[in-house]
Automatic annotation (TrEMBL):
It comes from the Bacteria. GO terms for biological process: acyl-CoA metabolic process; fatty acid catabolic process. Residues 1-109 form the HotDog ACOT-type domain. It holds the Pfam family 4HBT. This is Acyl-CoA thioester hydrolase. Belongs to the acyl coenzyme A hydrolase family. GO terms for molecular function: long-chain fatty acyl-CoA hydrolase activity. GO terms for cellular component: cytosol. Keywords: Hydrolase. InterPro entries: Cytosol_ACT (IPR040170), HOTDOG_ACOT (IPR033120), HotDog_dom_sf (IPR029069), Thioestr_dom (IPR006683).
Length: 130
């Protein structure tokens, strides 16, 4: 898994208990996973279809730096399934794991799903070239 992005936990990201609000981390996961999927497929016209199991494992607090690890789990005809791990940059403890985040390629003109033309082998090979 490659950790590609980081965010600083700010006061407006906290819940009433002073830890990172779960809704904020889910917003970040959706955004980071979209960016990753878009870069993998070379396409901007993707929609989030599904986010599967989400497991919160530890808290993050103001001033913590969290990082997002992303990897392709499956490649479908018009879909891409991503796994995202959010961890504390300093401690390396997992904060949250979001599994089975599914994005679907949508033709921007017809607004209907279409094949994106990539395979898992192609995407894995491209990762090795980086």
């Amino acid at each position: 898994m490659r950790f590609l992005s980081r965010r600083l936990v700010m006061p407006n990201d906290l819940n009433f208990a002073g830890s990172l609000f779960g809704g904020r981390i889910l917003e970040w996961i959706d955004e980071e996973a979209y960016i990753f999927a878009s870069c993998q497929l070379g396409a901007k016209s993707l929609v989030t279809k599904h986010i599967g199991a989400i497991s919160f494992e530890t808290s993050a607090f103001q001033g913590d730096v969290v990082e997002f690890g992303l990897e392709v789990k499956r490649v479908g005809n018009s879909s891409l399934t991503i796994t995202c791990v959010v961890r504390n940059k300093q401690t390396k403890q997992n904060i949250c794991i979001a599994d089975d985040i599914v994005f679907v390629y949508i033709n921007p003109e017809t607004r209907k799903p279409e094949p994106h033309g990539k395979t898992k082998a192609e995407l894995d090979a491209e990762v090795l070239d980086i």
